[in-house]
Specification:
The structure is a homodimer. By secondary structure, the first copy, chain A, is of the alpha+beta class. Chain A has 2 domains: 64 residues, Arc Repressor Mutant, subunit A (Orthogonal Bundle), CATH 1.10.10; 149 residues, Chorismate lyase-like (Chorismate lyase), CATH 3.40.1410.10. Chain A is built from 7 helices and 11 strands. In chain A, a hairpin with a 2-residue loop joins β6 and β7. The longest helix of chain A has 14 residues. Chain A is globular and about 65 Å long. The interface between A and B is medium-sized, with 33 and 33 residues. The structure holds a DNA duplex.
DNA sequence: GAGTGGTCTAGACCACCCC
DNA sequence: GGGTGGTCTAGACCACTCT
């Protein structure tokens, strides 16, 4: 493997270069979500390095939940469609701690143009065409979260309400399955706000009720922002769980 | 190194056993926060394993921020007193993203008895003596967070308001420096609530203002809960940042 | 039993820090 | 220059899964 030092660290270890090559193959779709990638020995042969070096590269991708190792079986491309990853980014749960999966109720999908703030978040030009989705998430048949979601229209051609409604699974499972876009990480900012009239109606509470406002930007490979989302969440009996370490 | 298989996984790798031995040394105070632990080769000799095995054990502890590696210098015990770790668990920051350090204003320290809920959180018996601390955190001279903190009295003997006030640094830096208790992780639950009269006064807002309520339990080695905390946070111009991956 | 990931070793060499 | 962490190798062997 030819050494290929880069700008930032003045020196790039081999396993780092391999990690980049693997990522490129993932972006190019050489291995699809849920599929196995070649074995460590095969990859070692392909890149002319030792198994240990390939392992270190895979370790890094596994710790980012981009790949999943399964002893005795192989290494697989992580997928939001797999049960254990279905609601990987959903941190709202009952105070009791059980993880329960919400039911989706779509309210609206319309075309719109990105305002300056949204455009900045998704790294688009202001005025770019977007899809704007509104939905409510129900936990045990109780409306708990009102979501507003924005996606660049050109990245999601042919998106319609019926297609969203007929799909079983999370939004990210949908993006991945239908549009081949895998979300690998997200940034969230939380605030406390007072419910406006419309939101209060959707969540069936009095206007002015305190709600948890969760702004999220979700990214694919290469830290490319794909989805903007604002969730307004009723936190009675439920809370947003986070672990600090 | 004698193999010492344990109950849970029916087989425990060597590096895992080393990790446990290292943790025991940390708990016993063999190496103090901020100090360097022995070099990898020394540890390899001590435990009669190869450098690679010690490395894997240290890697695990480093990824939990229990140890910190510094190339060319050594491996150090992480400390909340170090500038970069001062406010490691503080996720509230200006919307602009800069990290700024708050100023501490203590309001009260009193002795109390743990109610059933608090006792359960800290794994104490109900009625156990505790310290109850109240304070306000100011960002740029603006009161933004009202904290209520509970600690088991027997773990913090001789705690007084003046001792808290004269200490420069974060609470965890204080626990670590004065009581030798290192907090290594924490769990938080976030909710949106309406400000009551007292809190509103402390934060200089109208009663009923929506506040972010952050409940936290912080743990030392061995997942032992030490501190319970409830923060009520004004989120205007500020927000709670979280990264999902 | 064959194939996969996971562990462990011994040794070489590199990058970084400080004397 | 000597010490420390960081990389890389080649090879042995172990644990798990599937056929």
């Amino acid at each position: 493997m030819p050494a290929k030092p880069a700008a930032t660290p003045s020196y790039r270890p081999l396993y780092e270069q391999i990690r980049i090559l693997l990522t490129q193959s993932l972006v190019a779709g050489e291995w699809k979500p849920g599929e196995a990638i070649p074995s460590e020995l095969e990859l070692a042969a392909r890149y002319r390095v030792s198994q240990g070096t390939v392992r270190k590269a895979i370790d890094a991708l596994a710790s980012e939940h981009i790949l999943v190792r399964r002893q005795g079986k192989g290494t697989f491309v992580a997928s939001h469609s797999e049960p254990s990853y279905q609601y990987r980014f959903l941190r709202v749960m009952p105070d009791t701690g059980e993880k329960l999966h919400p039911q989706n109720l779509f309210l609206e999908l319309k075309r719109a143009k990105a305002g300056t703030e949204l455009a900045a978040s998704l790294r688009l030009k202001a005025g770019t065409a977007i899809h704007s989705i509104k939905r409510v998430l129900l936990f045990q048949n109780r409306p708990l979260i009102h979501d507003e979601i924005a996606l660049a229209a050109r990245q999601f051609p042919g998106l319609t309400l019926p297609r969203l409604e007929e799909f079983k699974g999370s939004m990210y499972s949908f993006y991945e399955t239908v549009y081949g876009l895998r979300m690998i990480r997200a940034e969230e900012r939380l605030r406390a706000v007072s419910a406006d009239a419309a939101t209060a109606a959707h969540l069936n509470v009095a206007p002015g009720t305190a709600l948890l406002c969760v702004d999220r930007i979700a990214f694919t490979y290469g830290d490319k922002p794909v989805e903007w989302r604002r969730g307004l969440c009723l936190t009675e009996g439920f809370s947003y769980f986070n672990e600090l370490s």
